[in-house]
Amino acid sequence: xxxxxxxxxxxxxGTATRExxxxxxxxxxxxxxxxxQAKAEDAxxxxxxxSALGFAFARAGVEAQSIAGVTNVTEAPEEDxxxxxxxxxxxxxxxYLNKNQYLLLYAYRxxxxxxxxIPPAYLQTLLRRAFDRNNPYRYEEQHWLSLLAGQRxxxxxxxxxxxxxGESGNETWETASHEERKRMLTxxxxxxxxxxxxxxxxxxxxxxAAHRDELIQCLRWGLSKSxxxxxxxxxxxxxxxxxxxxxxxxxxxxxxxxxVKIYEELLRGKLHFNFLLGWSYDKIEFTPxxxxxxxxxxxxxxxxxxxxxxxxxxxERVPLSFWSEFYDCPPEKAAGKLAKNPPFQKLFDLSKPILxxxxxxxxxxxxxxxxxxxxxxxQADRGNSCAGHAYGPRAGRKCHFGYERKAxxxxxRKRSDRESEERxxxxxxxxxxxxxxx
Length: 438
Fold this sequence. Notes:
The protein is mainly alpha-helical and 438 residues long. Helix content is 61%, strand content 2%. Strands 1-2 form a two-stranded antiparallel sheet. Helix 4 packs parallel to helix 6 (123-130). The protein is elongated and about 120 Å long.
């Protein structure tokens, strides 16, 4: 029988019938037991003190453990944001335990918009998942938790053996898989585009062509003028045509890049618009240099001439500022004019440059112009309909409502008047005939 079982047995039988035998206790406790026995007031107090000593020894030992290697832990800092209710923390934990990873990411995004923090009691479970190497979404979860964990979460990371937010960049790149590297680079580009670019410049040459192509695509996050030189170098020196094409498309997305300026120079002076005659186009010849610019020579549409096709490609790759210069008006008016009467008729795809440059203002004025045009046509159709009714067989009708009702009421009143007059006449004649009888 071990020490704790012996104490429990005595407690069950009672100190009046059973005495705790202290000789079964470890040698380290004998001296302390003798002191307790000498100072105890009665048998019951003696048993309480002896059993407390025995349980304490069984749990932790008489002497404290060595503090070698133990570091002091500072107090967690205070938060400046309020916490969510406990139900929110329970919901997030439940989504994790039930492996609803997409709902968990969605919940993180929604929670980040509220300006509150996850209760501290649920942070360890969620942080442990976010730093699990087998979690394919760990970098996305780390990003959202960096916004939802607050100062306490940042303080808790070193205690759990995890790196602090934003300090795990190059350390794990060598051991990370390709998918992990893509997520790591994407996260860096979202938070610090310069660090992401520096990391890619250092490590890209060690990757295969397929991996280089996918890693370069991560530059679309936070793409700016500072990325142009690196992308131009890839276009000029990389051995893979796919990688070159990816870098060229990214350069096309920069409105002020040298490549877009070349497109503008090739297109400038080749398009003409007259209010009465419409659009006219100058001839342009395809050159080998244009192929290097990503332009195609022959259109897949048999009804489209090759020189028009070349001009259309250029027109779909220039920003709104080019059309503002072309129409000599502010950008918002240029967007409306282009949407109302675009060149190349139905072949011109206005959505391509808008999406390519991610120009929300251009999209807004285009949609506004299309909506105004539709409303104008609808009003004109209604006006023509009303005018046709005014001179047609149903004259007097006003937009399906006023005049027709009034005309119907007038006709109804006339009909009721005639009927009343007829009834009055019949009564008169009846009374007259009755009066003539003897």
